[in-house]
Design brief:
9 helices
């Protein structure tokens, strides 16, 4: 690869990182799609890290905020996804700690309400199991899920 080609790819990668947060793994995939060799990809990534275009701490916070807000994922699913992207544990913990508890609970409550309305079954045990499985699959902690599902079931029993 010539120096000019390298500089062009460096600028292109920098532009990509400037538009939205990227982790090292995401950028490495993109560089390979562009046909860049492993050695050149490592150089580009190192340069971008040094110039703070790639910052795993910032990425973890942004990823967490977006997955919670738009996908309504729970903390466990977010943590798992970040670890799969090779984000360091301290950054994952920091990002998860920044989630406002009230917002998190409201999202869990809303997901529970929507799923409950969509269920066709009225059998209490089956509804409880389906609601719990759904929320745990979305990455919410099982203790919190069972607490919220039990509360909803009790409220509905009172209304009937």
């Amino acid at each position: 690869m010539t120096e000019e080609e390298y500089n062009n790819y460096m600028a292109k990668a920098g532009s990509l990182c400037a538009r939205n947060e990227k982790c090292e793994q995401d950028l490495r995939k993109k560089l390979f799609q562009w046909g860049i060799s492993d050695d050149n990809a490592k150089k580009i990534i190192e340069e971008l890290k040094e110039s703070d275009f790639i910052n795993h701490q910032r990425y973890a916070i942004s990823f967490t905020r977006d997955k919670l807000r738009f996908n309504h994922w729970g903390k466990k699913k977010i943590a798992y996804a970040l670890k799969n992207k090779d984000i360091e544990d301290p950054y994952v913990r920091e990002a998860l700690e920044q989630i406002p508890e009230e917002q998190y609970d409201n999202i869990l409550q809303e997901e529970l309400r929507k799923k409950d309305l969509a269920l066709k079954t009225r059998d209490p045990r089956e509804r409880k199991n389906k609601l719990s499985r759904f929320l745990i699959q979305k990455g919410f902690e099982s203790g919190k899920v069972f607490e919220f599902v039990d509360t909803r079931m009790r409220e509905q029993d009172k209304n009937e």
